[in-house]
Design a protein that fits this description.
Number of helices: 11
Helix content: 55-70%
Strand order of the largest sheet: 1-2-4-3
Shape: elongated
Largest sheet: 4 strands, antiparallel
Structural class: alpha+beta
Order of helices and strands: EEHHHEEHHHHHHHH
Distance between the termini: 66 Å
Number of strands: 4
């Protein structure tokens, strides 16, 4: 099997798989051995079992290609049989690789007088040395929330489910560190595993919507990660994990690099909003 890859647009890919006649014959033999009843039924009815064999061939090929692609793919591919004759089999798989988000007019983002007053009241209760940083953080968080409201797009269920699983595992670990069991938590809160997971899914969708909105802002403002920034973050992570940078680079080369670069871009977009806050909402005594 061989395949080619085409970038249709920033959010979509097209894989084209080619299988030789020999590959199909081998796959048909394996199918007949594993699915004897379906195979015999097809023979008796003078039908064909080419379709399930081709489907299995493409399923395995796509799974391999998706694993080799440097980003997670959270969507189901649209398969199309392009060719099926003596020359072999050609099948394409068109797939969305990233959520499509539309960025609104972020230049007009603003914080209402009521929100600003509430934040100032909260900050006034803090020690004086912490007020400036806390105020900026709260205002920045408010702007991120406003950005999410004007940025439209859907977070795929698979992406939210993956994040929710991570959140749930972290929550269970936190309980364990405090000497509690997750089963006891379910009883105390009158809930269960499925309900808790759905709660985490909803929270994950909110968080991911904010992240993807910030990423759209990063793309719009040209704030994507540079090679220098990626290398600096790689060095920081290597230092934290006490692992040689070169080894970490090898580990990240396949898939983690794209995630790290996105994290950098999102952080830069959040700081862009922070600078917007500095300009529009300076401290009253500043």
């Amino acid at each position: 099997m061989t395949y080619t890859l085409e970038n249709i647009d920033p959010n979509h890919l097209r894989f084209v798989f080619q299988f030789s006649t020999e590959e199909f014959q081998q796959a048909a033999k394996e199918y007949a051995e594993k699915n004897q009843k379906e195979y015999l039924d097809a023979i008796r009815s003078q039908g064909s079992f080419r379709k399930p064999v081709i489907t299995e061939l493409v399923r395995k090929a796509y799974a391999k290609a998706a694993m080799e692609y440097p980003q997670e793919i959270y969507y189901t591919p649209l398969l199309t049989l392009e060719q099926d004759d003596q020359r072999g089999i050609v099948c394409s798989a068109r797939v969305q690789i990233a959520p499509a988000f539309t960025l609104g007019d972020y230049h007009s983002l603003s914080i209402s007088e009521a929100e600003l007053a509430q934040i100032d009241r909260e900050v006034s209760t803090l020690p004086e040395e912490n007020r400036a940083d806390s105020r900026r953080y709260l205002l920045q968080t408010c702007m991120v929330s406003q950005l999410g409201k004007i940025c439209t797009g859907d977070v795929p269920d698979t992406m939210a489910g993956e994040r929710a699983s991570q959140m749930m595992n972290a929550f269970e670990q936190q309980l364990d560190n405090n000497g509690r069991r997750i089963e006891d938590y379910y009883k105390e809160c009158n809930t269960n595993e499925n309900e808790l997971f759905l709660d985490f899914v909803n929270e994950a969708k909110k968080q991911l919507h904010s992240r993807l909105s910030l990423y759209e802002l990063a793309k719009a403002e040209g704030l994507l990660a540079t090679d220098e920034e990626y290398e600096a973050e790689l060095a920081r992570l290597a230092d934290m994990s006490m692992m040689p940078v070169q080894r970490l680079r090898q580990i990240f080369a396949k898939r983690e690099e794209a995630k790290v670069r996105q994290d950098i871009a999102i952080a830069k977009a959040a700081e862009y909003l922070g600078r917007m806050v500095d300009k529009r909402y300076p401290p009253k005594n500043g």
